[in-house]
Amino acid sequence: MSYLGKYISVIVPAAGMGKRMNSKINKQFIKIKDIPILARTLMEFNKCDYIDEIIVVTRYDEIDFCQKEIIDKYKLDKVKKVIQGGKERQDSVYNGLKEVNKKSDIVLIHDGARPFVKRNIIEENIKFALEYGACVTGVPVKDTIKKVDLNGEIISTPNRKELWAIQTPQTFRYDLILKAYEKAKLDNFLGTDDSMLVERMGYKVKIVMGDYSNIKITTPEDLIIAEILVDK
What we know:
- Keywords: Isoprene biosynthesis, Nucleotidyltransferase, Transferase.
- By secondary structure, this protein is α/β, with parallel strands linked by helices.
- The protein has a single domain, classed as Alpha-Beta Complex (Spore Coat Polysaccharide Biosynthesis Protein SpsA, Chain A).
- The protein is built from seven helices and eleven strands.
- The longest helix has 14 residues, at 119-132.
């Protein structure tokens, strides 16, 4: 069942080694309650009726493993391709953008190591992207944020009401995000997230209210939190 007759694609970058995890394997393959992180992430999108295809981007030497131990094992039938990533996350997403179905209308980009995304957030992203062209998931920051210089001295204290912690999915019209990535490549520009590439072209990006449980698993401490979230 498509969303208003639109073709919806998902790109899941999962090529990072995750050095902060201190693990010998790609952190996306670490298991939480016997199920790999990446499998849990993909399950959420695979279950969503509005998603037509998923492209997984991983390391070249992990493509076969990912296909057999994640995609095939957990019957993730909406995963149409498992492709090779690049040096940076931005390179991996760009590889994914070039592989999505050309009739795609909307593309969601979601971290492979963010397995607790909820169905309503996915659906809200699709709705916002169709209406506005570009949106990102985020939550208001809870702590006071300080801007600090290289000497460790505080420069300023931004208004907390204007600050959001950005998550994924980040969702865009396919033509818009592809254009933004192509311009970034042409300009040799490396952004810190997908929306930054769209913002620099002058486009407005909307915020979709996320969830504080939609964590990215980056450190061993995050695995402890993840175990708790699975049991909730």
